[in-house]
Amino acid sequence: GRSWPIRPPRGSASTRQIAIVLETERLSAAHLGFLFAAVLLGFWSNLWAVPLFDLDEGAFSQATREMLASGQWLITTLNGEPRYDKPILIYWAQAASVSLFGANELGFRFPSALCASAWMFVVFRATFMFTASRNAALLAAGAVALSLTSSVIGHAAIADAMLNLWIALAMLGIYQHWLAPTRSKLLRIYLWMGLGFLTKGPIAVALPVIVSLVFYLSQRQPLRWLAAVFDPYGWLVFLAVVALWMAPLAMTGQTDFFFHFLFEHNLTRYGSTMQGHGGKLWYYVAALPLIVLPFTALLPGTFARLRKPDPLDVFLLLWFAFVFLFFSFSGTQLPHYLLYGCTPLFVLFGRAWNRLPAKFWTLLPALLFALLLASLPWVLPMVPIDGDRPYEAGIVSLAARSFGLDYTILSGTVLVAILVLLFRRRTAAWQALLGAGMALSMLVWFGFIPVLAAAQQLPVREAALRAKELGTSTVSYRTFLPTFSVYRGAITPNRLPEPGELVFVKLDRIPDLQRELGASVTLIPEFKKGGVALLLRQSEGGR
């Protein structure tokens, strides 16, 4: 069949090497088909069919909805209060998407899926440039799309997929510039840093500057680093990008929002544990094997490259090490933070395509994960839940009832597919791993995630739609699940309900609510499912 050559960019130091193998290293229709399938499964599968998840998706989506409702495009609010968590770019992107697709799951998630898809192709292109190997590029790209955590953030209406795209472009651009310096490459690096800063803040600048410094020092080229990092035109590009937000803020006198985000929020998040997330030095040691599932077996070989590293190994491992150490000492730790340092791991996975462990060990993590997911219909009902935690008990109970025959058939099919890949001799280990990753993505996004959403998020959406249908003033009580406001299409204050008002509440908060209102106040259930309820406080003269 017809094939398409992969063309390296002009000025690449690897152009000559690529030209030698160009006739043999070509993308066939099958390879393009794999890339297309990996993107669809990894980032677009069931994107619009699963409710938004709390907390993060709900918070980003509600802030975007409030931006559109208020017409205030420079600052963000959540339930009417300033939200300093992130800069503005992801909200602008979500607002544009919602204007196009509507205030629904696709509208809020489209920017993340689009950025994650671009991220995968950036890694594919860079890996081919660095290795001149089609197989290496396919494995690296597949790792981006099919690893568990990168696939999750590609589906999620949050800022991380966009940030990973800018970080990948900036960092891979730094290595390309080191190979063959040009002004255009340097200016693009500053452009990506500026866009990254507008997406999530200082990490988009600190990571390229610090890693490039250590790398150039390791290559005994400090003067080249100084020339690149103090390039005035580069910083003009960076400042021009940041000014897209900062200049209007300054003109309208709203710069307090920027400085609250830059200093208070970032320093607080790094220096203290927020929302009970992390704070342990060993956290990412334990999390990394799960973050890159099902490519976990490739980690030992990746770190073994430290024995005889070439410059590309040095750059990639320094990149990963900085992110790993930086967030290991952070007061707030979440799995997706480590993704900022996983792009180099994905490239290194690709470089090792022909030196993977034996196929059994390569596929073992995928097989164990598939077995775990397949066992959930039988294991979940046996999970002990403290009777004092009715919110969690309600979710687990509803999840256990949400597994059907279709889930059993899908999980069984995925297990068989992995076993076939394992025992089929003609399938190389790297090809079998990519096949197992695609099978697992099917199980995760068409099996497990719909069940999780049905138990955790569908009751919230149904409660919101019920409140919207009733048209009654609604509040929440000690319950922060912002998707309720998204689906209700209105801000939901967090306070005690007045007579005649609806109150949205987690089940474990109902006793406290009744205690604060008094035993004489009647709360009439309007909706109750899973771990949440919608109650009507009876008016003084009766309902």
Describe this protein with a few key phrases.
single chain; 543 residues; mainly alpha; 3 domains; four-stranded mixed sheet; two-stranded antiparallel ribbon; 24 helices; disordered N terminus
Present the secondary structure layout.
Layout: E1 3-5, H1 15-21, E2 26-28, H2 29-44, H3 56-70, E3 77-78, E4 81-82, H4 89-101, H5 105-131, H6 134-146, H7 148-155, H8 160-179, H9 183-200, H10 203-218, H11 222-229, H12 232-251, H13 255-271, H14 283-291, H15 299-304, H16 311-328, H17 343-351, H18 359-379, H19 390-402, H20 405-423, H21 429-456, H22 458-470, E5 474-476, H23 483-488, E6 502-506, H24 510-517, E7 523-529, E8 532-537
Parallel strand pairs: 5-6
Antiparallel strand pairs: 1-2, 3-4, 6-8, 7-8
Structure, described:
The chain is built from 24 helices and 8 strands. The protein has helices spanning 15-21, 29-44, 56-70, 89-101, 105-131, 134-146, 148-155, 160-179, 183-200, 203-218, 222-229, 232-251, 255-271, 283-291, 299-304, 311-328, 343-351, 359-379, 390-402, 405-423, 429-456, 458-470, 483-488, 510-517, and strands at residues 3-5, 26-28, 77-78, 81-82, 474-476, 502-506, 523-529, 532-537. The chain has 3 domains: 3-18 and 50-351, no CATH class; 359-455, no CATH class; 459-537. α5 (105-131) packs antiparallel against α6 (134-146) and α5 packs across α17 (343-351). The chain has 543 residues and is mostly helical.
- How many separate structural domains? 3
Strand order of the largest sheet: 5-6-8-7
User: Strand count, sense and closure of the main sheet?
Assistant: 4 strands, mixed
Determine the oligomeric state from the structure.
single chain
